[in-house]
């Protein structure tokens, strides 16, 4: 469930950063309201996810979701330039997030195995 919370946090981060672009330097009220709502919601879901996911992993994935999301939104809606370097950079961020998720899953598996071994030792004692 923590990964779902982290995904929600990332999606809200994309929403508030997109609203930041639309706010025109905090001069347009509706985007500013979206920022004021979405930014704290994003941080809330991040904090909930951090109860189960290590700090480094959760923060890296959260910022990765926001970075990739903002880059894609910029390309689609704001005509940000699309070039090989930008696409490679986005791909590297996605790859880094994937590595962190896999690393966290591996550590959870190792922890589960060590707990299981301890329980087996206790039963045979």
From TrEMBL:
This is Guanidinium exporter. The chain crosses the membrane at residues 29-47, 59-78, 84-108. GO terms for biological process: xenobiotic detoxification by transmembrane export across the plasma membrane. It comes from Candidatus Wolbachia massiliensis. InterPro entries: EmrE-like, Small_drug/metabolite_transptr, Small_multidrug_res. GO terms for molecular function: transmembrane transporter activity. Keywords: Cell membrane, Membrane, Transmembrane, Transmembrane helix, Transport. Its main location: membrane. Belongs to the drug/metabolite transporter (DMT) superfamily. Small multidrug resistance (SMR) (TC 2.A.7.1) family. Gdx/SugE subfamily.
């Amino acid at each position: 469930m923590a990964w779902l919370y982290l995904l929600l946090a990332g999606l809200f981060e994309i929403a508030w950063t997109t609203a930041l672009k639309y706010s025109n330097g905090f001069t347009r009220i509706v985007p500013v309201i979206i920022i004021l709502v979405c930014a704290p919601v994003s941080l809330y879901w991040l904090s909930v996810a951090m109860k189960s996911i290590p700090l480094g992993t959760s923060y890296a994935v959260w910022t990765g979701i926001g970075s990739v999301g903002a880059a894609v939104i910029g390309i689609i809606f704001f005509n940000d330039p699309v070039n090989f370097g930008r696409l490679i950079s986005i791909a590297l961020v996605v790859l880094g997030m994937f590595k962190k998720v896999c690393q966290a899953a591996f550590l959870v598996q190792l922890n589960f195995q060590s707990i299981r071994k301890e329980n087996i030792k206790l039963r045979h004692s």
